[in-house]
Specification:
Elements: E1 4-6, H1 16-26, E2 30-34, H2 35-41, H3 45-54, E3 58-63, H4 75-87, E4 89-94, H5 102-117, E5 122-126, H6 136-146, E6 151-156, H7 157-162, E7 178-183, H8 195-201, H9 208-219, E8 226-228, H10 233-236, H11 240-258
Parallel strand pairs: 1-2, 1-8, 2-3, 3-4, 4-5, 5-6, 6-7, 7-8
Helix pairs in contact: 1-11, 5-6, 9-11
Length: 276
């Protein structure tokens, strides 16, 4: 068994207590959560901490303060920090859909990293082919310009494939700047006309199509926490324990076949400063 995290969207229909129990029974070491998961649970922080401890889980990541490019600090972001201080979280995941210059987004990412650092958080910038930051090179340009110890890039297999990323795109990006890796499979030979819809409804469990990509990342020296993120209308219809078990087994199988990407502890870590 590898140190795997169950992403929020893999068990999206489940209540928070059900999700915690299912992930633990499937052998996951951690969870990823959305802010709305916490709000919708109706459970206070001490009880969440108690349930996580009872089931031996950590929180790898939280998402999203959507309007982080704004200079004003949103209530969503403040709530994420309150949760982090109470529970303990490794990283904050962010993307942006608003139009702005690369300079503006880089400066905003730097400010966000500074605020997050005060709470021991890494910040993983995610590129999505239907967002403002559509490619890996764009994401690295922003992270490099921000030049913050706790800022890095989140790699999602679906977004990697649908943005046509290549291993050449990783050239010049220090391996330690990859904050985490999200596994799934993209089996359709051609994308749907609506990429956003495909990303949120038609991903598949990690399988054979994922192995070579993960092996290539391992060969690049990538060492980061790995999670399974499968947005799937089909899996949404199944019992949570069944989905959690199937996704954990699939993720572990891919990592075993690919040659492991070391999955470090899920607790917050400090970054060495990198300068170009």
């Amino acid at each position: 068994m590898f140190t795997l995290t169950c992403r929020a969207s893999t068990l999206r229909p489940a209540s928070l207590p059900e999700r915690i129990k299912a992930a633990s029974e499937a052998g996951y070491a951690g969870l990823g959560l959305r802010l709305q998961d916490i709000r919708n649970s109706g459970i206070d922080y001490p009880e969440i901490r108690k349930q996580l401890s009872r089931h031996g889980l950590s929180i790898l990541e939280l998402e999203h303060p959507w309007n982080w490019v704004s200079r004003a600090v949103s209530e969503d972001e403040e709530e994420i920090y309150r949760f982090t201080d109470a529970i303990g979280v490794r990283q904050l995941n962010v993307a942006t859909f608003g139009e702005a210059s690369t300079e503006v987004v880089s400066a905003a990412f730097g400010r966000l990293c500074d605020r997050a650092a005060a709470h021991g958080l890494l910040v993983g910038l995610e590129f999505l082919p239907f967002s403002f930051i559509r490619t890996l090179p764009q994401a690295w340009e922003i992270v490099l310009a921000a030049d913050k110890d706790n800022g890095g890039i989140l790699l999602d297999i679906w977004h990697w494939r649908r943005s046509h990323a290549t291993f050449d795109d990783l050239a010049g990006i220090p391996a330690e700047r990859i904050t985490s890796l999200q596994l799934c499979d993209v089996r359709q030979p051609e994308p749907l006309s609506d990429l956003r819809h495909e990303a949120r409804h038609h991903r598949e469990l990690p399988g054979k199509e994922t192995i070579d990509l993960v092996a290539g990342l391992a060969a690049q020296g990538i060492s980061c926490p790995v999670s399974v993120e499968v947005f799937s209308d089909l899996l949404d219809t199944r019992p949570s324990v069944q989905t959690a078990t199937a996704s954990a087994e699939a993720g572990n199988w891919v990592l075993e076949k690919a040659g492991r990407i070391d999955c470090p502890d899920l607790k917050p870590i400090r970054r060495k400063r990198h300068r170009n």
